[in-house]
Amino acid sequence: MNATDKARRAYAPTAAPIKSERSVEFEVIARITARLKAAIEAAQFPGLLEVLHENRRLWRTLATDVANAENLLPDELRARIFYLAEFTHHHTSKVIARQETAVPLLEVNTAILRGLKQRRALQ
Questions:
Q1: Is 98 helix (H, G, I), strand (E, B) or coil?
Q2: What gap in Å lies between CA 17 and CA 108, rounded to an integer?
């Protein structure tokens, strides 16, 4: 190994780039939303139940986060996110009881992703 190769190795990145909280948040919501869409399209209730549980857990986490007094988001946005978490919880119960379709849950997640994407573009 020559000096050039040693220098390349010494200065090469040793770890993956650090992701922002927003980009991680976007990825998690996108992954769950994609799974939700696939489960709706497959029309297989057991698979839908699994992703509904994940989606409900996601929204419970978001609600807990925005309910924290130290959260820096504007109060109005925090209230809207909390409302969507409540809606998601109640609507998921109806989907599980086979009284409603999961499409509104997909629409909520998709709207959130659009908002996060716009916010990233502005930064």
A1: coil
A2: 30
Whole-angstrom distance, CA of residue 10 vs CA of residue 73: 41
State how many domains the chain has. 1
Amino acid identity of residue 47, one-letter, is: G
Q: Is residue 62 part of a domain?
A: yes
In a domain, 65, yes or no: yes
Whether residue 63 lies inside any domain: the answer is yes
End-to-end CA distance of the chain: 43
d(CA 3, CA 10): 10
6-64 pLDDT per residue, tens: 555 656 555 555 556 666 888 999 999 999 999 999 988 999 999 999 999 999 999 99
CA–chain centroid gap for 60, Å, is 11
Predicted structure pTM score: 0.77
| 9: in domain | no
